[in-house]
Amino acid sequence: MNFSQYLTMDINMLLSIVNMKLRDEGEQLDDFCQRYELDKTQLELRLNNHGWFYQSSRNQFSQTDQRT
C-alpha cells in the first residue's frame, strides 16, 4: 500500500486504512510506521487533530471518552 499521501488523504479513509492494517498485520504503531516509511509523529498529529488517538492496549486509533 502506498501511503505517500497520508498527510492529505481524507481523514476517514486514513483512519480506516491504518486501523485495518494495525489489526490485520498485528504490528504495533512503531513497526507499522517503519514498514510503510511513515513519520509516526506526523501521522499521530494528523489523526490527533481530528480527535483520534492511538491506544497501544487496543493497537488502534480511537476517540477518547469525553465524559467526566
How would you describe what is shown here?
The chain has one domain. The chain has three helices and two strands; from the N terminus they run H-H-H-E-E. It has helices at residues 11-25, 29-35, 40-48; strands spanning 53-55, 60-62. The chain has a two-stranded antiparallel ribbon. Strand 1 (53-55) and strand 2 form a beta hairpin. It is globular and about 25 Å long. The termini are far apart. The model has no long low-confidence stretch (mean pLDDT 90).
What fraction strand?
5-15%
Number of strands: 2
Q: What is the straight-line distance between the termini?
A: 39 Å
Average pLDDT level: 90
Read across the widest sheet, the strand sequence of neighbours is 1-2
Biggest sheet features:
2 strands, antiparallel
Structural class: mainly alpha
- The gross shape turns out to be globular
Approximately how much helix is present in the residues? 40-55%
Task: Tell me the Rg in angstroms.
Answer: 12 Å
Which key phrases capture this entry?
mainly alpha, two-stranded antiparallel ribbon, 46% helix, globular
Short description:
The protein is mainly α.
Helix-strand blueprint:
Blueprint: H1 11-25, H2 29-35, H3 40-48, E1 53-55, E2 60-62
Antiparallel strand pairs: 1-2
